[in-house]
Structure formats: structure tokens, C-alpha cells
């Protein structure tokens, strides 16, 4: 069994963003040479997320509105976590959207449905963060 590991470094311009990671993960898969196995894509920060969904801008705006209703950023004083930081909402948003994706690899490709894409969700951005890609298989 082979194993491959790579860190993807991201720097978002805004506090909250959704970034399609699928092309970068596919490049990692090609680089790994693994044809059958599993691919883990993992957010390495507690205020960011990795998830699978459709790459449609209206849906991304819906996520933003929905998440803001569930865990509004302001007022910052509504959260006990916010003392030295102002990112309690980002921790909650990450919990909702998830930490990682595990995808099957079949014949050297991500084994996805027709609209599925891998996304990075940033909820406390404007600084460098990383995502782990770990691929195992034959």
C-alpha cells in the first residue's frame, strides 16, 4: 500500500469564503500515482471546514445566510469564547459544515457523483491556513 501526504496553503481575502479545492486535490491524486484507495481532505484549523457539495454561487450565498442565522458573528459579546478573540461564531460554523471529506478513488479518479466538488470553508480568514490531503491505496 502506498501513502501520499501534502499540505495545501490558503490565504483568504475575506473573513468568510468558500474555495473549490477539487482541482488541487485531483492534482495531488495524479501526483500520488494511486489508482485505488481513499483520499482524506482535512481542515487543519478549528475555524475552517472541508465539505462536499455543488459549485453553484447561489448555493454558496445560501450557506452564508444560513450559517449567519445559526451562528451570527455579531454582537461578539453574545459568546463566552470571545474574550481575547472574536471568532466564536467561526468555531460554531465549522462544527456545522464539518472537518473533513473522505472520498473513494477508483481508476485513478475521485469517485464522485456528477455535481460533487470538494470545498474549503473559511470562517475566520485573512491569514494563512492549511488543508491536509492524505491519500492511501494501490
Notable characteristics:
elongated; 138 residues; 25% helix; 5-stranded antiparallel sheet; Jelly Rolls; alpha+beta
Description:
The chain is of the alpha+beta class and 138 residues long. The chain has a single domain, classed as Sandwich (Jelly Rolls), CATH 2.60.120. It has 3 helices and 8 strands; from the N terminus they run ββαββααββββ. It has helices spanning 22-32, 57-70, 88-97, and strands at 2-11, 17-20, 37-43, 48-53, 100-106, 109-110, 117-122, 128-137. The strands form 2 sheets. Strands 1-8-3-5-6 form a 5-stranded antiparallel sheet, covered by helices on one side. Strands 2-7-4 form a 3-stranded antiparallel sheet. The radius of gyration is 16 Å and the shape is elongated. It starts with a strand and ends with a strand. The mean pLDDT is 97.
Q: Give the termini distance in whole angstroms.
A: 5 Å
Largest sheet: 5 strands, antiparallel
Poorly predicted regions:
none
Inertia-based shape: elongated
CATH topology: Jelly Rolls
Task: Give me the count of strands.
Answer: 8
Helix/strand-derived class? alpha+beta
Radius of gyration: 16 Å
Number of distinct helices: 3
The CATH superfamily is YjbQ-like
CATH C-level class: Mainly Beta
Output mean pLDDT: 97
List the helices and strands and how they pair.
Layout: E1 2-11, E2 17-20, H1 22-32, E3 37-43, E4 48-53, H2 57-70, H3 88-97, E5 100-106, E6 109-110, E7 117-122, E8 128-137
Antiparallel strand pairs: 1-8, 2-7, 3-5, 3-8, 4-7, 5-6
Summarize the structure.
This protein is α+β, with helices and mostly antiparallel strands and 138 residues long.
